[in-house]
């Protein structure tokens, strides 16, 4: 069985106290680049450490337990039966949003207006021929919050894209660079726009390359985000489950009927705005 190295980031004594003892503490008390959130910490780790070929690595925020509803022991127990046939484990959070929206960039537009077109401009600036209006994600090819546990091959691909994105944000001297270095709305405060673009980059990596993925999810008991969806009756949960299933089927076989059915079914759900 492959070794599993899941690191949990802490920023101060308060966040250190939140860590799960089953994860490896990752010290970011210096917090030299807070505007990058966990992106900076992951990037620094990958620059300073050699990864083993046959091991899994993950980098979680101190809020992992609250967001994912899992302990380290529970997560590793769920992963264990699938390790031999998996390159990337995706731990589902915000499951109802993951299921409903076509991809995380569309979901991002709900929370951070302008991020969809901005992200398309980023991809074009990086020379990536991916059209976000055609990108389809589900619980098997994306996870929010960088809640990903993966082998070396994934993290090398992540770092390659991360380095290019970091260089773009840090050096671009035009409107695109200014917006990326600016802020966006986040709940009831402002936060760095770049952090929300980088969080969605795994969708691009998993679109570009073929990985054996495994979703760690509780599709039967997930909480429905009431700050996103209006209550829509008895079949609301089943509708979201079907949305995710149809997107997964499309991801596997490219059959457009699955995608059309997904778009038809999701019309039964109403957003709060």
Write up this protein.
The protein has 273 residues and is of the alpha/beta class. The chain has one domain. The protein is built from 13 helices and 8 strands. The strands form 2 sheets. The protein has a 6-stranded mixed β-sheet, with helices on both faces. Strands 6-7 form a two-stranded antiparallel sheet. Helix 12 runs antiparallel to helix 13.
Structural class assignment: alpha/beta
Distance between the termini: 47 Å
Q: Give the neighbour order of strands across the main sheet.
A: 2-1-3-5-4-8
> How many domains make up the 3D coordinates?
1
How many helical elements?
13
Task: Name a few traits of the molecule.
single chain; two-stranded antiparallel sheet; alpha/beta; globular
Summarize the structure.
With about 270 residues, this protein is an alpha/beta fold.
Summarize the helices and strands and which ones pair or pack.
Elements: E1 3-10, H1 13-16, E2 24-27, H2 38-48, E3 55-60, H3 64-68, H4 72-79, E4 88-91, H5 95-100, H6 104-111, H7 115-125, E5 148-151, H8 152-171, H9 175-180, E6 183-186, E7 189-192, H10 193-198, H11 201-208, E8 213-216, H12 236-253, H13 256-265
Parallel strand pairs: 1-2, 1-3, 4-8
Antiparallel strand pairs: 3-5, 4-5, 6-7
């Amino acid at each position: 069985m492959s070794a599993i190295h899941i690191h949990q980031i802490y920023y101060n004594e308060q966040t250190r106290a939140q860590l799960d003892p089953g994860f490896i503490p990752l010290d970011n008390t210096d917090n030299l680049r807070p505007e990058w959130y966990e992106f900076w910490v992951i990037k620094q780790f990958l620059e300073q450490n050699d990864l083993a070929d046959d091991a899994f690595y993950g980098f979680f925020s101190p809020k992992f337990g609250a967001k994912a509803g899992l302990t380290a022991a529970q997560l590793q127990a769920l992963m264990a039966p699938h390790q031999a046939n998996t390159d990337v484990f995706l731990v589902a959070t915000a499951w109802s949003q993951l299921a409903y929206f076509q991809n995380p960039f569309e979901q991002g537009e709900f929370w951070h207006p302008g991020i969809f077109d901005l992200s398309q401009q980023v991809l074009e600036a990086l020379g990536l021929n991916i059209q976000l209006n055609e990108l389809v994600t589900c619980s098997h090819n994306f996870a929010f919050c960088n809640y990903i546990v993966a082998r070396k091959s994934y993290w090398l691909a992540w770092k390659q894209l991360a380095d290019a994105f970091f260089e773009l944000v840090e050096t671009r001297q035009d409107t695109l660079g200014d917006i990326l270095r600016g802020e966006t709305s986040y709940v009831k405060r402002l936060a760095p726009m770049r952090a929300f673009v980088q969080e969605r980059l795994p969708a691009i990596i998993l679109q570009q390359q073929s990985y054996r993925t495994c979703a760690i999810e509780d599709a039967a008991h997930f909480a429905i985000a009431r700050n996103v969806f209006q209550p829509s009756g008895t079949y609301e949960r089943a509708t979201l489950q079907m949305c995710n299933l149809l997107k997964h089927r499309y991801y596997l076989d490219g059959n457009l009927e699955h995608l059309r059915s997904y778009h038809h079914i999701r019309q039964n759900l109403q957003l709060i705005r």
